[in-house]
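PROTEIN SPECIFICATION:
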Amino acid sequence: MKTKRIFRMVLLFFCMISLAGCQKEEWNIESVETEESTVVEGRVITSNGTPLANVVVKVDFHKTKWLAYYKTRHKAETTTDKNGKYRLFFTVKDDELETEADKNSDVNKDYSLIFDMKNLDSKKYFMASDMVPIITSVDPPMAELAEEVDAKIDLFVSSFERGKTYTQNLYIPQKRYIQVTLKGFIPKAGDYFSVSSAFPYGFEMDPEQGHHFPDTPYGYGKMNDYLFALHDAEQKTYQVPCALNENNILTLIRKKDGVYHAEEHQLFVTEDTPENLVYEY
């Protein structure tokens, strides 16, 4: 039994080495655009349609085969100009096209369009990590933001056509912190009271794709419900991040005696919006 266990450990060790050795990273950045070039272009803006310059935009190709092979090929890279515009071009190679053999195997090929906002002020603009809290407690519900700021937003694309131009715009709103006071609720064991904010954020989508933020072409940005939880006092005040110069949806959720109740409040946030909003149950 001991011999078999050692053999399995050794086999696993060599498999891990083999997998690590199969991981490849290639650079295929082109300097000349041709008729065969695939083009991805668009604009990155913030609140009030203000352009965002110095956002790094990239296209990467990925090829994966479960437990056996991984390849990343960097295809194009640029930064947005003073008007928030970017333009990428690259050639779709033959080995990046899906073949019939690929369809009948565990090989997967796709691309990622990456927007890296490392040059932006994370205190002023919403980053992806702002909306991914780490759950620290389920009962009572509590969470905290990740310490590291993830400044990248990825869009995965199954394939690109040669000689075709694609447009992809991105919206990154500015932050405005609003004080929200919750009062008039005395929690018991298992009770809680939370508040979250939702706002337009991210990629501009085709109208047929659905799940847009109301009256906008963009997706949803949301601070998780569990991020702000009242569980140990009758009244608390929170700093709730909202999107500046946008319509925000504040959602209040209460659990009392095992019964849930939720209500939504629409709030257009400007620089003149009251600094403190009070909601009472």
In short: DSSP finds two helices and 19 strands in the chain. Confidence is low (pLDDT under 50) at residues 1-15, 17-21. The helical segments are 2-22, 100-103. The CA atoms of residues 186 and 234 lie 5 Å apart.
